[in-house]
Amino acid sequence: MYQKTIRNSFTLDGIAIHSGNLSEITLHSAQPNTGIVFRRVDVDPYEIIEAKIGNVSNTERCTQLKNKHGYAVSMVEHTMSAVRGMGIDNVIIDVNGEELPIFDGSSSYIAAKILEVGYLQQEVPKTYLHLQHKVRVEHGTSFLEAHPSSTTSYCVCFKNEHHVPFLSDQTSYFNFIENDYLTDIAPARTFCFKKEIMYLRSKGLIQGASLEHGIVIGEKKIYPNLRFPDELSRHKLLDLIGDLALNPYFHAEIIGSGTSHYLNTLFARELLKNLR
Question: Does position 224 have pLDDT exceeding 90, yes or no?
Answer without folding.
Answer: yes
